[in-house]
Amino acid sequence: MTVNAETHAGGHTWRSLPAAQQPDWPDHEALRDVLAELESYPPLVFAGECDQLRARLGAVARGEAFLLQGGDCAEAFDAVGADQIRNKLKTLLQMGAVLTYAGSVPVVKVGRIAGQYSKPRSKPTETRDGVTLPTYRGDSVNGFEFTEAARIPDPQRLKRMYHASAATLNLVRAFTTGGYADLRQVHAWNQDFVKSSPSGQRYEALAREIDRALNFMNACGVDPEEFKTVEFYSSHEALVLDYESALTRVDSRTGDLYDVSGHMVWIGERTRQLDGAHIEFASKIRNPIGVKLGPTSTVEDALTLIERLDPDREPGRLTFIARMGADKVRDKLPTLVEKVSASGAQVVWISDPMHGNTFEAASGHKTRRFDDVLDEVKGFFEVHKSLGTHPGGIHVELTGDDVTECVGGGDEIFVDDLHQRYETACDPRLNRSQSLDLAFLVAEMYRHQ
Ligand SMILES: O=C[C@H](O)[C@H](O)COP(=O)(O)O
Ligand SMILES: C=C(OP(=O)(O)O)C(=O)O
């Protein structure tokens, strides 16, 4: 992986096309210097790892596994700490254990982590008390603080994004391969949680069952290596194309291009224009690609995306992330799934039950109802059941911390509680208890499918 994509024309064809949601960098010379530096940096992930994830997602596409993709809405530079990263990972590992054991299905685990620093926004500006400033577009672009200075896009932030991603990924790799993710630790992941929450107690009962199963296998002389480490992959939205392009390299084994900023990248609802730069960029790289499909997506959109991104019809290459909204999923999704299946493409279908269910509470907080999130996943499962297709997974915004950003859940958060610990820089996330609740309920749905 030594050749830079700059020498490979294919990596830059997106530049001649319209690119939505790009930062308005004020200093182009500074941007050029930063990009040149980024191009010299080592890859964050290896092409072979991306291939391995594509193969795992191939199993999901064939109905043999389930994809759990989750993490922050927007990672923040000041949250690159051991506790925050461990808490997020712990939550995903617990959800993975619940889905694997209660749902009896292999789970492919992918974090919205180690690169999720850029946000597409509905409006270019934000007004508070009569003052209008550029909107916050993620820590990779500008600062969250509502001051003129903070909101100016600063290309130096792209380097901070690289370093923050590297530090995060380093710790994630240590946790997942260094003993922490060993299945014998199922109780340890829950220790600080078990007494304080109903979902923690429910998890503890499941962890005891897993323990008994492990002890039984041990007594039979079986102690597989696979139980000692966890395969875990990184993903983020490939939004700021200058950054993604600077991190795109030629794989010396094959001559193919890989975006080595993360294992999987996705294209968002606001940037999936068929003739736009993002789809062009994604069409040139070999990473597994996700595309968000909102309620306005047409059959033609889906089929053209398949032509552009998965011309070889390779199971695992393309994941459609449906984010329709609980009130629309049963209406909008069936035709898409039906026509895509009829085309012969074997894409992965997963449900993002977050982005179609956002509303503003009277207090001004952007929030989501746990019941809507659950209802959208239910609708997603119903659609697949009626068509005989595979509900391949879920994509959720979550955190391992006990925030109060979404309402509802077993350990119920009320609208009046939102102010208590509302910490997201952009969209509301499920907290740990709500995430575990969701995992148990999805595992049940999967079992009954
Ligand atoms: O996370 C997704 C988007 O960035 C987010 O929903 C946009 O939010 P906005 O409507 O506040 O800009
Ligand atoms: C912006 C996001 O979602 P969408 O593109 O579906 O709005 C996101 O997942 O962060």
From TrEMBL:
<dbReference type="GO" id="GO:0009073">
    <property type="term" value="P:aromatic amino acid family biosynthetic process"/>
</dbReference>
<dbReference type="InterPro" id="IPR013785">
    <property type="entry name" value="Aldolase_TIM"/>
</dbReference>
<dbReference type="InterPro" id="IPR002480">
    <property type="entry name" value="DAHP_synth_2"/>
</dbReference>
<protein>
    <recommendedName>
        <fullName>Phospho-2-dehydro-3-deoxyheptonate aldolase</fullName>
        <ecNumber>2.5.1.54</ecNumber>
    </recommendedName>
</protein>
<feature type="region of interest" description="Disordered">
    <location>
        <begin position="1"/>
        <end position="24"/>
    </location>
</feature>
<feature type="binding site">
    <location>
        <position position="355"/>
    </location>
    <ligand>
        <name>Mn(2+)</name>
    </ligand>
</feature>
<keyword id="KW-0464">Manganese</keyword>
<feature type="binding site">
    <location>
        <position position="112"/>
    </location>
    <ligand>
        <name>phosphoenolpyruvate</name>
    </ligand>
</feature>
<keyword id="KW-0808">Transferase</keyword>
<feature type="binding site">
    <location>
        <position position="292"/>
    </location>
    <ligand>
        <name>phosphoenolpyruvate</name>
    </ligand>
</feature>
<comment type="pathway">
    <text>Metabolic intermediate biosynthesis; chorismate biosynthesis; chorismate from D-erythrose 4-phosphate and phosphoenolpyruvate: step 1/7.</text>
</comment>
<dbReference type="GO" id="GO:0008652">
    <property type="term" value="P:amino acid biosynthetic process"/>
</dbReference>
<keyword id="KW-0104">Cadmium</keyword>
<feature type="binding site">
    <location>
        <position position="323"/>
    </location>
    <ligand>
        <name>phosphoenolpyruvate</name>
    </ligand>
</feature>
<dbReference type="GO" id="GO:0003849">
    <property type="term" value="F:3-deoxy-7-phosphoheptulonate synthase activity"/>
</dbReference>
<dbReference type="GO" id="GO:0009423">
    <property type="term" value="P:chorismate biosynthetic process"/>
</dbReference>
<comment type="similarity">
    <text>Belongs to the class-II DAHP synthase family.</text>
</comment>
<feature type="binding site">
    <location>
        <position position="427"/>
    </location>
    <ligand>
        <name>Mn(2+)</name>
    </ligand>
</feature>
<feature type="binding site">
    <location>
        <position position="397"/>
    </location>
    <ligand>
        <name>Mn(2+)</name>
    </ligand>
</feature>
<keyword id="KW-0028">Amino-acid biosynthesis</keyword>
<keyword id="KW-0170">Cobalt</keyword>
<feature type="binding site">
    <location>
        <begin position="269"/>
        <end position="270"/>
    </location>
    <ligand>
        <name>phosphoenolpyruvate</name>
    </ligand>
</feature>
<feature type="binding site">
    <location>
        <position position="73"/>
    </location>
    <ligand>
        <name>Mn(2+)</name>
    </ligand>
</feature>
<dbReference type="Pfam" id="PF01474">
    <property type="entry name" value="DAHP_synth_2"/>
</dbReference>
<keyword id="KW-0057">Aromatic amino acid biosynthesis</keyword>
